[in-house]
Amino acid sequence: MNRELLLDSLMFLSLLMILTWLVLQLLDLLTAMPCFIYTRIWREYLLIIGLVINVFLLAARRRR
Questions:
Q1: What's the angle, vertex CA 54, arms to CA 26 and CA 57, rounded to 5?
Q2: 28-46 per-position pLDDT tens digit
Q3: Which of 20, 38, 40, 62 has the smallest C-beta neighbourhood within 10 Å, fewest atoms?
């Protein structure tokens, strides 16, 4: 039960990270506001970490 809760929480976190990246990308594309331009550096890290967590979760769920 504890393992399932952990995997579900990590899935929610990774999807939230990818969704945040997508929203920031769209805002940067559609607006020229400096606050979105300054987030370009860490946005890529947000996407990469979200994708790595998703791959980890797929492997963990498959192993079960």
A1: 160
A2: 888 888 887 787 888 889 8
A3: 62
